[in-house]
Amino acid sequence: AAGVIQSPRHLIKEKRETATLKCYPIPRHDTVYWYQQGPGQDPQFLISFYEKMQSDKGSIPDRFSAQQFSDYHSELNMSSLELGDSALYFCASSLRQTETQYFGPGTRLLVL
Amino acid sequence: AQTVTQSQPEMSVQEAETVTLSCTYDTSESDYYLFWYKQPPSRQMILVIRQEAYKQQNATENRFSVNFQKAAKSFSLKISDSQLGDAAMYFCAYNFGNEKLTFGTGTRLTIIP
């Protein structure tokens, strides 16, 4: 079965640079969620989209923005990167009425 | 706000034995969903099992089963016939109304050969 695809899988950036993370949900899934997982921590919710509209927002810094496109893929844009942004970023997708989120493999971001 | 608590940071079990991981949560809602996710060393988040709060019957998936006690707000995971591949971090998670998942802090499970 098709899974959630995230790219890139690994990313190394310098401080103050920008990064764009991409997420391709499972086909027919209409909702996308972004989570950030720091070392030794549980995943923290950043933002979600349903049918291309932002549906919920968590502890996402103002330096970050995201959107969902007409083909349902989503991008997380991160600017003015800081050392503390180094983390594993997960995208998850769901079919709204099923309530179950399936996670992609994650993007490991390292900010130097 | 909803909270999820996992009071066992680490657990270990002998291969082929049974282990139970604990989870409690706090919510004022009556219809919600609970999940157990597994995160092996690869750090992929893998769905293990889910439970709908309106169902009294405990969910089962092969060797994995839950003990859902709605009144006590408890949701434990039992792993039977533990295998080496079960070694991972296990996260309990809560979800209401297609919103974000709220995770516990996780329990690291070690399988002893």
Keyword list:
heterodimer; A: 112 residues; mainly beta; seven-stranded mixed beta sheet; 51% strand; B: 113 residues; six-stranded mixed beta sheet; four-stranded antiparallel beta sheet; globular
Q: What's the arrangement of secondary structure elements?
A:
The complex is a heterodimer of chains A (112) and B (113).
Chain A: E1 5-7, E2 10-13, E3 19-24, E4 31-37, E5 44-50, E6 53-57, E7 64-68, E8 74-78, E9 87-94, E10 102-103, E11 107-111
Parallel strand pairs in A: 2-11
Antiparallel strand pairs in A: 1-3, 3-8, 4-5, 4-9, 5-6, 7-8, 9-10, 9-11
Chain B: E1 3-5, E2 10-14, E3 19-21, E4 24-26, E5 33-39, E6 46-52, E7 60-61, E8 64-69, E9 74-79, E10 88-95, E11 102-103, E12 107-112
Parallel strand pairs in B: 2-12
Antiparallel strand pairs in B: 1-4, 3-9, 5-6, 5-10, 7-8, 8-9, 10-11, 10-12
What can you tell me about this protein's structure?
The complex is a heterodimer of chains A (112) and B (113). Chain A has 112 residues and is an all-beta fold. Chain A contains no helices and eleven strands. In chain A, the strands form two sheets. In chain A, strands 2, 4, 5, 6, 9, 10 and 11 form a seven-stranded mixed sheet that branches. In chain A, strands 1-3-8-7 form a four-stranded antiparallel sheet, with no helix packed on it. The radius of gyration of chain A is 13 Å and the shape is globular. The termini of chain A are far apart. With 113 residues, chain B is mainly beta. In chain B, 0% of the residues lie in helices and 51% in strands. Chain B has strands spanning 3-5, 10-14, 19-21, 24-26, 33-39, 46-52, 60-61, 64-69, 74-79, 88-95, 102-103, 107-112. In chain B, strand 5 (33-39) and strand 6 (46-52) form a beta hairpin. The mean pLDDT of chain B is 95. The A-B interface holds A 31, 33, 35, 37, 41-43, 45, 48, 50, 55-56, 58, 88, 90, 92, 94, 96, 99-103, 105-106 and B 33, 35, 37, 42-47, 50, 52, 91, 95, 98-106.
